[in-house]
Write a structure and sequence with these properties.
The protein is built from six helices and no strands.
């Protein structure tokens, strides 16, 4: 209940004995709002965690992005990403820390520039070699077998077919 103060006005629960009460309440409200603002600025949001997790893969499942997987290991990794981002590390620093501990399979692409170049160039070179070998083989095959429309005439000096025919006819006549 309110009671009249010395000036005859009703005070809303504050008496002249507690002049600092209003100041303390305002200080607590201000402190609460600043804590909320600090948590939003200093902490990592879900979008920040997802942005990093999209570039990584699940340690348990094969070829499942970390942001899509809900295994216990993935949930723990996402919380670790959140903690590292809240500590002020950049996205690439977080990814590099996971690669250093768990290897290149975390990101699916080798982090070493030489290995990355080999991962791209070797399949391209193998494809080019296979295509050139196939083209060479088809060319060679096409050059050896030419299409002939008319039968070749028998060579003049060949008498083996004629001799065979004469002997066959002689055998047939002898059986009659």
């Amino acid at each position: 209940m309110s009671r009249p103060n010395g000036s005859g006005h009703l005070a809303a629960g504050f008496s002249a004995k507690r002049p600092y009460t209003c100041l303390i309440v305002m200080l607590f409200v201000l402190l609460a709002f600043s804590a909320i603002a600090w948590a939003e600025d200093g902490g990592a949001t879900d979008n920040d965690v997802i942005r990093v997790a999209e570039r990584m893969y699940c340690p348990v499942c094969e070829n499942i992005p970390l942001d899509d997987c809900e295994t216990i290991a993935c949930v723990e990794w996402k919380e670790e990403i959140r903690a590292q981002l809240a500590a002020g590390r950049s996205d690439q620093e977080v990814i590099d820390s996971f690669v250093a501990r768990f290897g290149d399979n975390v990101v699916g692409v080798p982090q070493d520039p030489l290995l990355r170049a080999l991962a791209v160039l070797v399949p391209l070179l193998a494809t080019a070699l296979a295509l050139s070998l196939g083209a060479f083989t088809f060319r060679r095959f096409g050059a050896q077998r030419k299409l002939r429309l008319e039968p070749e005439p028998a060579p003049v000096g060949e008498t083996s077919d004629e001799a065979y025919r004469q002997r066959l006819e002689a055998d047939l006549r002898g059986r009659r």
